[in-house]
Write a structure and sequence with these properties.
The chain is mainly alpha-helical. It has six helices and two strands; from the N terminus they run H-H-H-H-E-E-H-H. Helix 3 runs antiparallel to helix 4. The chain is elongated, with a radius of gyration of 18 Å. Bound molecules: protoporphyrin IX containing FE (HEM) (2 copies). The site of one protoporphyrin IX containing FE (HEM) has 20 residues, from helix 1, helix 4 and helix 6.
Length: 174
């Protein structure tokens, strides 16, 4: 029940998936910064937690990958080209969840601000701005777009399996 099987993802994988799906989806509210410079209820409500929740996503992604590795031989498989595409997109989503937080840190620090996580100071305010950090940190926004596109394709894939092919793909994750 806790472990995956060939027919169904176990409780731990499902917990990781849905808990992190909620965390990742709410990170997308950060796009709300484009509306009125973030001065609205969306920015006010979710903005302050963006960095801490981002760091939490990264830690959970590491734990989830370790767990996934342990379950490798007994997980549900999707054969064929579609299965390969799905697997490839899962890998890129994991990469985004691991790489976006450090890029976010570089962006903030490079701009000359301190980096605070869960109310604690991770990095004190730097003496000056660092241009190369900001340049690298700008990829955070690029990966944000990649992740949105993949999550949208992922959701569409899940709906396609469930409502058109009427197979077990969605059921084995819920
Ligand atoms: C996997 C976790 C994360 C996700 C999915 C995520 C997602 C996003 C998204 C969707 C945006 C809006 C992009 C845009 O403005 O075009 C954004 C912006 C931003 N994020 Fe994150 N983020 C994550 C983690 C973090 C972390 C850990 C930090 C800092 C420690 C951070 C700092 C920022 C900053 C400063 C911006 C505004 C500047 C920019 O657009 O590059 N993020 N993030
Ligand atoms: C929004 C609603 C979502 C739905 C309906 C959904 C549905 C599913 C389904 C049905 C599977 C199993 C696919 C298979 O067995 O081939 C799956 C796996 C997966 N999903 Fe989602 N998903 C959603 C959101 C997300 C989000 C936001 C992320 C992270 C960015 C994500 C990342 C993954 C990953 C990495 C897997 C591979 C299995 C694993 O490593 O845990 N999903 N999803």
């Amino acid at each position: 029940m806790l472990h995956d099987s060939h027919h169904r993802y176990g409780l731990i994988t499902r917990f990781f998936h849905w808990f992190m799906a909620v965390l990742v989806l709410q990170q997308f509210f950060k796009f709300g910064d484009y509306i009125n410079d973030g001065e609205h209820w969306l920015g006010d409500t979710f903005g302050p937690y963006h960095t801490s929740i981002g760091a939490l996503i990264m830690l959970l992604a590491i734990a989830r990958l370790l767990w996934t590795k342990k379950q490798k031989s007994q997980r549900p498989q999707t054969p064929g080209v579609l299965g390969k595409i799905a697997k490839g997109s899962h890998h890129i989503m994991y990469t985004c969840m691991l790489v976006m937080p450090p890029l976010g840190v570089l962006y903030i620090y490079g701009k000359g601000y301190p980096v605070k996580l869960f109310g604690m100071t991770l990095l004190d305010k730097p003496v000056e701005k660092t241009e190369w950090m900001v340049s690298l940190g700008n990829f955070h926004a690029v990966l944000a777009l990649v992740l949105v596109a993949l999550v949208f394709a992922h959701l569409s894939g899940a709906m396609y399996h469930h409502f058109i092919r009427r197979d077990e793909t969605l059921k084995r994750m819920v």
